[in-house]
Amino acid sequence: MLLLLYSLSKDRSPGFPSSVGLVACHVAHGIRGKAGEEDALFVANLAATLGIRFFLKRIDVPKHRRKGESLEAAARRLRYDALLALAGEIGERTLVATGHTLDDQAETVLLNLHRHTGRTRGGIRARREDGVVRPLLLFTRADLRAFLSMRDIPWREDETNENERLLRNRIRRRELPALEAASPGTAARLARAGEAWTRRLETLDRTIDAALMMAGIRSEGPWPRCLLVGLGPEGAARLLVRAAGVRGGVPGRIQISRAIGRLFGGEARLAESLAGLRLSADARVIRLTRGPSRP
Q1: Can you give 114-141 as a three-state secondary structure string?
Q2: Cα dihedral sign for 210, 214, 219, 223?
Q3: Strands 285-289 and 23-28: what pairing?
Q4: 254 CB-near residues (< 8 Å, 6+ apart)
Q5: In 3-state terms, the chain is what percent helix, strand and coil (to 5)?
Q6: What are the two backbone dihedrals, phi and then psi, of residue 289, each rounded to the nearest 5 degrees?
Q7: Which has the closest alpha carbon to 117: 283, 256, 261, 277?
Q8: Distance from CA of residue 224 to its chain's centroid?
Q9: I need a surface site. Which of 42, 109, 190, 253 has the fewest CB within 10 A?
């Protein structure tokens, strides 16, 4: 990705900054020892070869990991925090480009289906509202390795990607290759499905945000029951998923379906668990809280 962006900036392609405006950043998570240090050195040397400014951000993932948070989720959260903080220091409108590929998109779709979240989660967004962009979503890992091999450019592999105790790695190393072998083009079709789900969710998000703004209500609630009824089952489900996500929860499809069924089924009062949180409702108000709901 860095080589491609450097080439585009050097050619002064429309929409890309000059090479002076392109910087490289490596986030060291403090969990891979010597291999992690070698990764950082590799990126620093590449940036020096290209004449690009290089930043190394060190974070202690185990130390700042939240209670109940997986090591991978903590690393991802802290990595994006570090990258976005650097972007803010560099200047307004600075974008953060990450190297997610078409394969990552397909894996994410399968991962969400495994977790029974499916369409409520969507896929990897090509561009996020906070300035994170994914310019390589059109390319497979094989495409990128071929690009590097043709130019005799070395790269490094993260050995933790071979750990099949992690669900994403099992999908990457076993499930997706098996599906692709049985039906070539599966990865591309899954990636398109992820993009379609994401577009649908973005439309729902705009509808939800407009309704919240008009009512003068925070996205995390509490919400008037009439607002969720007005959003309809799909919009209400998306609002609950978003609110749970802010609190670190990831509700499954079955949990969401049950909650929406009760909310729209005419029950005047309800109280149940939702992704480790507590969803409660009376005739007028719906709340999503960390502790047990009060009568």
Answers
A1: HCCCHHHCCCCCCECCCCEECCCCCCCH
A2: negative
A3: unpaired
A4: 116
A5: 55, 10, 35
A6: -130, 165
A7: 256
A8: 29
A9: 42
